[in-house]
Amino acid sequence: MNVRYRSSVAAPVRAVLLLGVMLAALAGCTQRDMTDLQQFVETTKRTTPVKKPDPPPEIKPYTPFSYTAQGIKDPFIVAPFAEPDQIDDIVRPTGQQSGSYTGVRPDPNRVREELEKYSLASLKMMGTFRMGSNSELWALILAPDSVVHRVQKNNYLGTNHGKIVDITEQRVDLREIVPDGPGRWQERDAFLSLTQ
Length: 196
Description:
- About 25% of the residues lie in helices and about 20% in strands.
- The chain is built from 3 helices and 7 strands.
- Residues about 85-100 have low confidence and may be disordered.
- It has helices spanning about 1-25, 35-45, 85-90; strands spanning about 125-130, 135-140, 150, 155, 160-165, 170-180, 185-195.
- Strands 4-5-6-7 form a 4-stranded antiparallel β-sheet, with no helix packed on it. Strands 1-2-3 form a 3-stranded antiparallel β-sheet, with no helix packed on it.
- It has a domain at about 115-195: SH3 type barrels (Roll), CATH 2.30.30.830.
- Strand 6 (about 170-180) and strand 7 (about 185-195) form a beta hairpin.
């Protein structure tokens, strides 16, 4: 019976203690004298010079530009592929007969070789060999399909009509024919180096 009496008395004592702690905490939140803080703020406002921000830069209104060059290709429009009769007009200088143009251009009737369906960057030179003692040097080229092909001078490689002009033990030299505008072509040198 004494145990029940003690537990019932302890609960109100705890509640009173908890209430006292809460009141003490709230007493710390009461307003204090803040005159020194207010004086500091006022002094700082008076002594600090006020800087006005720089005015924003003047924004000029947009004025659109109209490209009015007549008869000249607009650089902002992608041109469609030229028709064959337009190609002759572009390539042939004034006064020349049709079909008399002798510039560089790929042969459209040539049968494409196996390694011309791959880009030059995807082909790798794996080595060289000779067939016989006095024969020319052949090169071994690895295609992306993991097949090794043997090529010699005058064979073609890559997608740019690249004709092999020389083979050494370290590299294969090519002369490619690449487009240089509508109906115009140019030659450029390229090579494949021996893969290390």
